[in-house]
Amino acid sequence: MIHGIINIHKEKGYTSHDVVAKMRGILKQKKIGHTGTLDPDATGVLPVCLGKATKLCDMLTDKNKTYETVMLLGRVTDTQDISGTVLSEKDGSLLDEKMVTEAVLSFVGDYMQVPPMYSALKVNGKKLYELAREGIEIERKARPVRILDVEILSIELPRVKMRVSCSKGTYIRTLCHDIGQKLGCGACMEALIRTKVSRFELKDSITLEELHNLNQAGNLSDVLVAIDAMFSDYESVTLKEEFLPLVYNGNAFRPNHLVNNRRFTDGEFVRVYDNKKQFIAIYKFVKEKAIFKIEKMFFERT
To answer: Which of 1, 53, 77, 127 would staple 84 via disulfide (CB 3.0–4.6 Å)?
Structure first.
C-alpha cells in the first residue's frame, strides 16, 4: 500500500470525490481521501492522502488556504457563482474603483458568513445542495470565518481579480456575494483557483493524467510527500528500545525514555521514531506531569 500525500491539480468539471475515485483506479488502492471540497467549476490545489496518511485529512482540512478569484459585480445568482440561475442584474461597470477597493478590503479580518444553500454542508443528514435542488431553502446560521489577507490583482469593472488567504470553512463565492451586497449592486464569483493549502502550492501540483504517467513509469515517489514531512517544524525524537512498546500502543512516555533527552516546553509537539527510523506518531509534552501524550498515531501493525 502507498502511504503519503500527493498534491493534485484538480481540473474543472471534477468534484473532489471524482478525483479520489480516479486515483483509486490509477493506483489500484482503496484507502485514499481528499482534504477539502472544491466545487466542480473550481480548479487548483487538492492534497490527497493515501494509506496511513488518510489520518491527516482532517488536519489538512483545518489549514489556511489561498485562492485567486474573479468577482463579477452586478450579477446575483442562486449558487453565488457564474453557473447559477440569475436572480438580479445591474450595471457593475458604473461603480467607482475606490469604493470597490474599500468594500473588498473591509472584509479583511473576522466576519460572520452565512454558508450558501449550494454547499456540501449537512442539515439533518442531508446536504444543503440536495435541498436546494429540490427547491427547498432553509435558514442557515452565520459562522465565524477569517479573511487573513486580500490582494486586489486587477480591477476592470465589472470584474475584480483578487488573491484571498482565509481560514477553513470560508466560501469565496459567498465572500464575493457579500461584497456585492455591501456595494448595493450584487456580485457573483466568475472564476476560482486554489493556489495553496498549508505547504502545498499550485506550482508543485500535478494533474490526474500526469499522475497516471508517473505511476506507469514507476516514478510515483517523485511526487509523494512522506507523512512525517508534514511535521517538519517539530523536532524528531527516538525512544530507547525498551520503551518502544509504549509508543506502539499509544501510551504516554517520559523524557528520560528518549535516546537524546533535553528540556521540553509545555505543549511542545515532537515526531516520535523507533530505532529503525520508522515514524510512529506525534506526541505533545505536558510539563505539569512531565510526560508526552499521544496526539496522532500513524503506526500500524503489519
So the answer is: 77
- The ranges assigned to domains in the chain are 4-62+199-228, 65-197, 233-297
Taken in order 71, 72, 76, 80, the sign of the CA dihedral is negative
pTM score, whole prediction: 0.84
d(CA 199, CA 70): 24
C-alpha cell at 20: 479520489
Strand, coil or helix: 257: helix
- The rounded distance, in Å, linking the Cα atoms of 182 and 107 is 10
Query: For 101-156, how does the pLDDT look when each residue is reduced to its tens digit (9 = 90+)?
Result: 999 999 999 999 988 867 667 776 777 666 667 676 777 788 999 999 999 999 99
Question: What CATH topology corresponds to 65-197?
Answer: Pseudouridine synthase (3.30.2350)
Which residue in the list 39, 81, 178, 228 is annotated as catalytic? 39
**pLDDT tens by residue, 283-301:** 999 999 999 999 989 987 6
Helices (H) and strands (E) in the chain, counts: 7, 18
Cis bond leading into 144, ω under 30°? Answer: no
Does the annotation count 266 as an active-site position?
no
- Phi and psi for 125 in degrees, rounded to 5? 80, 0
4-62+199-228 CATH:
3.30.2350.10
